[in-house]
Amino acid sequence: MLRALTAHQAERLDAGQAAIVIGLIGRGIQSSRSPVMHEREGARLGMRYTYSLIDFDKLGLPDSALGDIVEGLEKLGFAGFNVTHPFKQSIIPHLTGLADEASAIGAVNTVVLKDGARTGHNTDCWGFAESFRDTMAGCPMSNVVQFGAGGAGAAVSYALMELGVADLAIIDSDRERAERLSARMAPRFGQRAHASADVEHSLSRAAGIVNTTPVGMAKYPGIPFAADLLSTRHWVAEIIYFPQETELLRRARALGCRTLAGTGMAVYQAVRAFELFTGIAPDRAAMVGHFEAAA
């Protein structure tokens, strides 16, 4: 694992460089703003704080190296790490325990390494919910369609249930994955969520649309359904923040729909993760400023 890290990363991980060392594990993450958000907030609070990217694409690592990477970060003295696509669910077997919210959701985006334990948390759920409350208050929550049932999608589904969605249709290219997610939520939320394969019918009765798939990222351009199904009656939420305006958001705004960009979730999940890593609550407004400064 250590051989896989670049010389630049290895230098930054020197114990003399930072008292708190954090990382992000994922693929295609070179544009992530997490390092800037975390490091600037750490500096503002007077901490020696380093945040490094462990990009499996850049390092040429297979998915099967995940366990070795986690073990290596632990040996290097990391206090924890964030997890993003495509590892939010596959990380779980490499952990020693899960916080309640991560266990319920079945996905992890934050891991705290402490006293020999590797504890998985999910701050995506809280991050999406807080962002929605800030920006989308008053949106009808009767029928919502969510595209995507992966790790991020699982967290957003739970957030939508907690926000009061009465009927959530989950659409995924893997129908069984959507069915597993809706079944996982049933004990807590009843039968308010269900898998759907009928995109046109689901959107025809929906008040809101949430995209949790990678479609819309620079690497995966487009929108996750036929554009002519988007209507002025819909509100639309994204979790993608790079680019900040996806094609879906651009089309929705052109129609006059209320929209929620992925930036709020990106900032708020980091707010909660920072507190888990350090034990100190960061300033939300400052974190927003750090995020914007990283553009």
TrEMBL record:
GO terms for cellular component: cytosol. GO terms for molecular function: NADP binding; shikimate 3-dehydrogenase (NADP+) activity. InterPro entries: Aminoacid_DH-like_N_sf, NAD(P)-bd_dom_sf, SDH_C, Shikimate_DH-bd_N, Shikimate_DH_fam. The active site is at K88 (proton acceptor). Pathway: Metabolic intermediate biosynthesis; chorismate biosynthesis; chorismate from D-erythrose 4-phosphate and phosphoenolpyruvate: step 4/7; Aromatic compound metabolism; 3,4-dihydroxybenzoate biosynthesis; 3-dehydroquinate from D-quinate (NAD(+) route). Shikimate binds at S32, R33, S34, T84, N109, D124, Y241, Q269. Its EC number is 1.1.1.25. It holds the Pfam family SDH_C. It catalyses: shikimate + NADP(+) = 3-dehydroshikimate + NADPH + H(+). It is an enzyme of class 1 (oxidoreductase). NADP(+) binds at D100, G148, A149, G150, G151, A152, I239, G262. Homodimer. NCBIfam families: PRK00258.3-3 (NF001319), PRK12549.1 (NF009201). This is Shikimate dehydrogenase (NADP(+)). It comes from Mesorhizobium zhangyense. The gene is aroE.
